[in-house]
Amino acid sequence: MKGKRGLILGVANNRSIAWGIAKACHAQGAELAFTYQGDALERRVRPLAAEVGGHVVGHCDVTDPATMDAVFAETEKLFGKIDFVLHAIAFSDKDELTGRYVDTTEGNFTKSLLISCYSFTAIAQRAEKLMVDGGSLLTLTYYGAEKWMPHYNVMGVAKAALEASVRYLAADLGPKNIRVNAISAGPIKTLAASGIGDFRYILKWNEYNSPLRRTVTIDEVGDAGMYFMSDLSRGVTGEIHHVDAGYHVVG
Ligand code: 0WD
C-alpha cells in the first residue's frame, strides 16, 4: 500500500477494530490520518496515530456535519487526494441494547440510524470529492443485520440499513472507480461492544459454535480490512464480507 493515503474514523482505543485495520494498512506502507470524537478520545488517539507515523486531522462527531467538513478539509490540506476511508462508527443508547426491540424509542431509533447508518453516506459524499483517482470505502457491520440476535435490537436494524446502503453507494460510485464494501465482524470485546447486553455470553456462544471454534481478533479483521483498502480487492464492490470464524454458516 505504499503511496496510498487514507482516513480512519472510529478509533476509540487500542482495542478498536479501526485500530486493527489501521495497523494492517500501516504495515503495508499506507499513510494514515485519524479523527477522534471528543477530548477524552483525543488523548487515546494521538499516541496511537504517532505509533504508526500517522496524522490527526481533528475532532469528528458525525451528528455535527460541520465537524465532518472540517476533518475532510484538513485531510485535503494534508494529502490532496485520498485513496481510502474507514468508517468504524456506531451508537445506540445502552439502555436499549438489552431487552426487546419492540420497546425502542423514536429518539434512540433516529439517533442510532443517524450515527450508525446515515453517517457512512455523509462520509461517502465528502470522500467522493477527494477520491479523484478512485478509491475504497469500508464500513463495519454485524450478523445481527441478517438474523435476530439477543439484545442487538435497534443496532440490528441500523446495520441492515447500513448493508443496504453499501449496495446503493457501490452502484452510485462504481463509475468513478470508488468501491464500497463492509466487513461483518464476529463479536470482539471493545468499548462499543461492552454496551450490548450479555455480551460475554455471545462471545462464549460463538466460541462453542463457530466452525473455527473461536472468536476473531482485531488483527484478523485488520488484515481483511487491508485487503479491501488495497488493490488486492480491486474487482470487489458492494460486498458484505464475513470475518467471524465462520459463524454465519451455522447461526
Ligand atoms: O463485536 C464488535 N465489537 C463488533 C463491532 C462486531 C461487528 C461490528 N462492529 C462494528 C461496530 O458496530 C462499529 O460500527 O465495528 C465498528 C467499530 O466498533 P468497535 O471497534 O467495536 O468499537 P469502539 O472501539 O468503541 O469504536 C466505536 C467508536 C466510538 O467509540 P465509543 O465506544 O466511544 O462509542 O465509534 C465512534 C466512537 O469513537 N463514534 C462516533 N464517532 C463520531 N461521531 C460517534 C459519533 N457520533 N459515535 C460513536
Automatic annotation (TrEMBL):
Protein name per UniProt: Enoyl-[acyl-carrier-protein] reductase [NADH]
Positions contributing to NAD(+) binding: G10, S16, I17, Q37, D61, V62, I89, K159, I188, K189, T190, L191, A192
Keywords: Fatty acid biosynthesis, Fatty acid metabolism, Lipid biosynthesis, Lipid metabolism, NAD, Oxidoreductase
Entry's family note: Belongs to the short-chain dehydrogenases/reductases (SDR) family. FabI subfamily.
Active-site feature positions: Y142, Y152
Pfam annotation, one family: adh_short_C2
Protein EC: 1.3.1.9
Catalytic activity: a 2,3-saturated acyl-[ACP] + NAD(+) = a (2E)-enoyl-[ACP] + NADH + H(+)
Species this chain originates from: Phreatobacter aquaticus
Single Gene Ontology BP annotation: fatty acid biosynthetic process
Pathway linked to the protein: Lipid metabolism; fatty acid biosynthesis
Name of the top EC class for this enzyme: oxidoreductase
GO molecular function, one term: enoyl-[acyl-carrier-protein] reductase (NADH) activity
Tree of life domain: Bacteria
